[in-house]
Amino acid sequence: MNFSQIVESLPVEPVCQVDTLPFPKIASGKVREIYDLGDRLLLVATDRISAFDVILPNGIAGKGILLTQLSRFWFDQVKGKVKDHLVEDEESLMREELGLSKDLQLRSMVVKKLKPLPIECVVRGYLAGSGWSSYQKSGDVCGVKLPGGLSEAEVLPESIFTPTTKAVKGHDEPIDEEASRQLVGDRVYEVVRRLSLEIYGMGHALAKKAGIILADTKFEFGLDDAGDIYLIDEVLTPDSSRYWPAESYEIGMSPPSFDKQFVRDYLLTLDWDKQYPGPELPAEIVEKTQAKYLSALEKLMGVRG
Q: Which of 28, 93, 110, 273 has the fewest CB atoms found within 10 Å of its own CB?
């Protein structure tokens, strides 16, 4: 599916709840609903948006479609580098076997049942966000010592792997290499570290061709019964990554981004304690946020590895 077809398929109103489906729902996340298909899972990305771990009252129309289609784009780019969780012929399965509507097909993935690793695999190529805050205080990022004299948004001497815990509630927390190895084992740790850095490097190079800087991102991996490692969940989307437009990038300041940092920045101007319930987003913020997601998708889909 090309970019124009995706745009034509976007709903006018956000789909924040999924109509009842004839499959057992086994989990409901901030964005995704997960259904049990027996030997497979159905992942449905809604248009919900969260900030500071709070799901906001109104969503971004078509966000779930944009995230899903961008993940599909990146899964296609990494084929041959790592196995992924998509089942074969999943699009025809959704259409013919599951009988999903066109909207649900575009925002859904049928995936293998795997055991997710208990860590999120974060890669940072630039000094930004919480990494910049940590560096200012201690000269390191998640325990990785960095050279002195670096500025905000500066490219790092080399990309760093900084895994976190996977919190069911609240914030993920940084975890050091020793603790990560204890959680997943030495073999798995070495493989996901290598894959994370390789995929980030590939994504950064391809994004650069599109005039976008991929500053950092997080990946998730899972294991099958044989212990084989798969790339799962979403890949290099604006929800899991920090993207900056290259034309406005400057060292020493926080660049404008294609991700939902735009929504966070707006919320920080409000008298809100970052607790539930969250404030409703004004129409202007919703429209600008959707435009940022669309712009990132259009630029990225215009290039190929």
A: 273
